[in-house]
Amino acid sequence: RLHASDNPQPMEVAAIETELLRDYRFGQQQLIEIWGHACAIAITKAFPLTSLGKKQPTVLVVCGPDQNGSIGLVCARHLRIFEYEPTIYYPKRTPHTIHQDFTVQCEKMDIPFLSYLPTEVQLINDAYNLVIDAILGPETDHTDVKEPYAGILVTLKQVKIPIASVDMPSGWDVDQATSDGINPEVLISLMAPKRCATSFTGKHYLAGRFLPYDIQKKYDLNLPEYPGTDCLIEL
């Protein structure tokens, strides 16, 4: 059982999600939409339009193959509505209908998709204000990162522009920080911080204010008080 001081383990996170889908009748698409929207708002707080150094408010969103990638797609769509200029790199598109739906929604918003990620890091630094890492989530085995993602992490480790990671920094062990992962300036934890977030020293947001009270109680999540009606809080 979790103590109030603990962060949920990946197992607990999976259990909470299963319970939301099965017992509370949330839909997977609904959860991804809630999280992606909250991530976009966190980006607007951490990197307001007025603070961006480049003439265009460009953002590169790198999406992985699983749920984290879909959250990235939703985040990109909302950033577009918030008048940022996202570009998406989504190298391995999943045949799952939900992922396809989110992809089409982005295409219909005229968000460009890159066909490859430049390995010339300077090109990324010059073209974008920041990178959103929506690559690997808690469900990924960080010791066995396959291509193209291993190569993407090598590239992202060298970029000079800020990186914001969705739920956990890609390449980190969900239980602890690993030197193999990338080093983001901003972390947006979803539902509750993962254990590895305790060693994160950058700007840290908790996003997605929707968990039923019974679930919060059952898993001893001990979530902070969100300000007013905000859907995220800076920790």
UniProtKB/TrEMBL annotation:
<dbReference type="InterPro" id="IPR004443">
    <property type="entry name" value="YjeF_N_dom"/>
</dbReference>
<dbReference type="InterPro" id="IPR032976">
    <property type="entry name" value="YJEFN_prot_NAXE-like"/>
</dbReference>
<dbReference type="GO" id="GO:0005739">
    <property type="term" value="C:mitochondrion"/>
</dbReference>
<protein>
    <recommendedName>
        <fullName>ApoA-I-binding protein 2</fullName>
    </recommendedName>
</protein>
<dbReference type="InterPro" id="IPR036652">
    <property type="entry name" value="YjeF_N_dom_sf"/>
</dbReference>
<dbReference type="Pfam" id="PF03853">
    <property type="entry name" value="YjeF_N"/>
</dbReference>
<dbReference type="GO" id="GO:0052856">
    <property type="term" value="F:NAD(P)HX epimerase activity"/>
</dbReference>
<feature type="domain" description="YjeF N-terminal">
    <location>
        <begin position="13"/>
        <end position="223"/>
    </location>
</feature>
